[in-house]
Amino acid sequence: MATNTEIPTLDGDGMIPAYVARPEGTPRGAIIVQQEIFGVDAGIRKKADGWAARGYLAVAPDSFWRQQPGVELDADKPEEFQQAIAFMMKHDFDLGIRDLEAVIHWIRREQGVPKVGFVGYCMGGKVAYMVAARTDIDASVGYYGVAIDQMLNEKHAIARPLMLHVPTADGFVPPEAQKAMHEGLDDHPRVTLHDYEGLDHGFAAEIGSRRDEAGAALADSRTEAFFAEHIG
User: pLDDT digits over 91-126, tens only?
Assistant: First the structure.
């Protein structure tokens, strides 16, 4: 069962819109599904529905609600792609982490689900790293996260498991950035990096032309096993 709901911020200054997909019976855990720059679109809702079908409470919060609630843009339309980038450039990532802390608290306290995982894509992949370093999330996964190489000074704060999926031909994460990520994180006891040779940014998108079936299946199987181990 899926519904749209609103989650109060920690500071009481607003309500965070979220798509919530519930499993049948008692959840085995919860998964926060973090959007790309295109909003909580049909692809993100499909991912949330998939986690609910596997027995998890899935919550997909709207990252851009403070700018414009309900953004849904098409990655295959150049003008909408540029609109999405503009939303990301105006996004306050630090405040966004506070909003995600509110979602984590809501899941644990209001929904009664103690173990919470996080999976994010593109911009959300960056946020997965930030959440791992800045919150008490139980486990996090980032797909093709951008700018992680610029946040390696936060790696000491990562105390719970983090998995990062890195396509080697990512047009938004150049080879030198990938090299810095490996050099900075390969020896971290809580971090696992998986490279996907020749794949590009967005290879696990549920909708549109960017998807690579084999790469998505491999990455998603690793993510599913990761959450089964660390969330339930």
Answer: 999 999 999 999 999 999 999 999 999 999 999 999
Spatial distance between the Cα atoms of 137 and 156, rounded to a whole number of angstroms: 15
Q: Determine the pLDDT at residue 31.
A: 98
Are 49 and 2 in contact by the 8 Å Cβ rule? The answer is: yes
d(CA 63, CA 118): 14
Q: Is 124 helix (H, G, I), strand (E, B) or coil?
A: helix
Going by C-alpha positions, the residue among 133, 167, 164 that lies closest to residue 226 is: 164
Dist CA 64 CA 87 (whole Å): 7
Place of tokens 């200054």: 13
Tokens found for residue 25: 């019976």
What residues are annotated to the active site? 170, 201
Tens digits of per-residue pLDDT, 10-68?
A: 999 999 999 999 999 999 999 999 999 999 999 999 999 999 999 999 999 999 999 99
State how far Cα 208 lies from the chain centre: 18
Q: Tokens in use for 101? A: 């802390």
- Tell me if the pTM is above 0.85: yes
